Amino acid sequence: MKSNRGGIDWWVRGAQVGRTVALALRVLAAPALAQDAPAPDASTVTLDGNKLVLPGPITFQTASATLSPESDAAIAAAAAWLQAKSFISTARVEGHGDADGDASQALSEARAMAVAKALVAKGVDCKRLLAVGFGGNKPVADNGTAEGKAQNRRVEIHNAAMRDRPIGGMPLDGGGRVAGNVCGG
After folding, report:
1. Distance of CA 75 to the CA centre of its chain
2. HEC string for the chain
3. Fewer Cβ within 10 Å of end Cβ, the chain: N or C?
4. Architecture of the domain defined by 37-178
């Protein structure tokens, strides 16, 4: 919604959070909109096997499951892609960590759930999402360096089932630990 106060154009954006009636609002001055990401577009997502390759990273605040604003474009693109591909009946949101033990496992699960809930907030049916944590079990880089650990701390989204049939004979959870029920209850 656009408003003009004191000769300055202001834009107000709202997003429904889950199934609640309350809205989270953010007010942006008009100059900030020039740098806004374009509308979500499923065509910005490609596949590497069954993994969605997103147009940007999914990042979090340090040592937490709070998504950073830089993740908005990637999450919006993933949501648009999933909405356009209704034949994908289950998408697995995988949280990965470094080799730092139990804390890494718990954080990977919490981050997977945070991304799944963000996708739900963008309109993806919660019943199509499975949030799974792998901790440090699937590294993509050397955990012996700070850079390697940073690369290993990631969230990936994978197609897990098509038309209610697991893809590639893999279990829906991909061998990770289910983080909980994305739909709540």
Report:
1. 5
2. CEEEECCEEEEEEEEECCCCCCEEEEEEEHHHHCCCCCCCCHHHCEEECCEEECCCCCCECCCCCCECHHHHHHHHHHHHHHHHCCCEEEEEEEEECCCCHHHHHHHHHHHHHHHHHHHHHCCCCHHHEEEEECCCCCCCCCCCCHHHHHHHCEEEEEEEEECCEEHHHCCCCCCCEECCCCCCC
3. C
4. 2-Layer Sandwich (3.30)
Residue for token digits 């648009």? 80
What residue spans define the domains of the chain?
1-36, 37-178
CA distances from 13 to 22, 53, 81, 99, 131 (A): 13, 27, 22, 39, 27
Cα separation, 181 vs 156, in Å, equals: 18
* Alpha carbon distance 50, 84 (integer Å): 16
pLDDT in tens, 114-130: 999 999 999 999 999 99
